[in-house]
Amino acid sequence: MHKVAITGTGIFTPQETITNAELVASYNDYATRQNAAHAGEIEAGTRAAMPMSSEEFIVKASGIESRYVMDKAGILDPETMHPRLTERADEDISIMAEIALDAAKKAMDEAGLTAADIDAVICAASNHERAYPAIAIEVQEALGIKGFAFDMNVACSSATFGIQAAADMIRSGSARAILMVNPEITSGHQEWRDRDCHFIFGDVCTAVILQRLDDATSKNAYEILSTRCLTEFSNNIRNNNGFLRRTREGHMEDRRDMQFRQEGRKVFKQVVPMVAELMLNHLADEGIAPKDLSRLWLHQANKGMNDMIGAKVMGREPTRDEQPNVLQEFANTSSAGSIIAFSRHSADLPAGSLGVICSFGAGYSAGSVIVRKVA
Ligand code: COA
Is the sign of the CA dihedral 120, 205, 129, 152 positive or negative? Predict the structure, then answer.
């Protein structure tokens, strides 16, 4: 068995941002228009008035202050309320592959690898813009990588599950170096017309290079000591869109369940203990005491969730340095969140430092990756 290391990461960040103030103004404009359009029904009591959103609620409930998006104008237009992305010809690079290439090149630079050194590509994300051919194969082709590629989806845990899949392949020898990309255009499946969730998501793409530890030359390499993945079925985060849509009467209409929806409170209550237990059991089985951890790079969904998970794992409140959050700037970027935290906050630790990359989300799904700084 070969030892495996993460030797490079990269982040593609869209150029446009939406602040909470801009988001709330647009949503409230939309809700006011809807209420005016349906004033008769609301007065007759046959329809509920749409409630207004508030910046104060968003920051207090989630810790999110802003988000990056691929198309701000469409999302903020009260007559549209979703991103408008131009359709591309089959011959042109698709948008998910395009943002993946940007992140991939940054990760390859950090690892000091060229396409010739890589022999597999995994595209791990919450949604893929088409059924086939795989986005990963398009990325592979665009970079000139030989070998094989595939897409996978475990919602917000896609990246940690992707790391486990890649690490297992490198350990056993079926690949020597693997590029994993996480293009998350969450604005496409977010419901911007629902105040309960309109503030949650943002767009981004992350990339990770994994390779044999023996081959690593990166100045920021982390050995993967162990990975652990866990799933438990739940309908509390769900999106019913899929390839059978047109076979079902009424499903081609503008239906709420074709976008992201969740029972946020239940998710919060059920996922926090599940994730803390996964991490604590994983650490115990590897003989690592929580007090020996220098950093937790957690999934970035909600500051309150991260505070609770961090406290349960460390046995005390972690410092900001021990548990860096990026969600105030990026919002929830699904599978990319813990990788952004890792990418931005891993270079400063000294050799020998231990940490855990952990993600969690729909499924339910949760992944824990224990790493040790090499150089
Ligand atoms: N502005 C103002 N008020 C709002 C609002 C908004 N944008 N959205 C909801 N509210 C209201 C609700 O209607 C509710 O009102 P009520 O008490 O009169 O019924 C109240 O605020 C509390 O709403 P609730 O949804 O219970 O808030 P919460 O404290 O649970 O926070 C989440 C909501 C989504 C931030 C939180 O549940 C969460 O983060 N859950 C984790 C799940 C997650 O993020 N999953 C993503 C995939 S991993």
Answer: positive
